[in-house]
Specification:
With 108 residues, this protein is α+β, with helices and mostly antiparallel strands. The chain is built from three helices and four strands.
Length: 108
Amino acid sequence: LAELLADRLLFQKMTSFTLLVLFGCLHVCTYADKTRYTNEWIVEVEGGPEVADEIAQRHGFKNLGKIGNLQDHFQFLLQGEVLGLHMSSKSEAISQEKQVINAQQQVV
């Protein structure tokens, strides 16, 4: 039973994050010639808000908190950066953290 519940939880986490990514991709593909990036990231972090806070601080972000009822999904804000720029290096750096499942810069 515990194994079944763990599998179901993993499936729900993967489905939620996949929907976020697909929505982001659809938006980017639709407006590819006008893509403007924000200074916000959606980051999936295992370990809860304390771990998310530590990772955010280590990379120059502020953790704005959990996203709705999505487990382990947090909104990070990169302060003092110019809007509109794609910062793949920041996404890559955050993604190198062991507890980070995925990180995606948001678009307008």
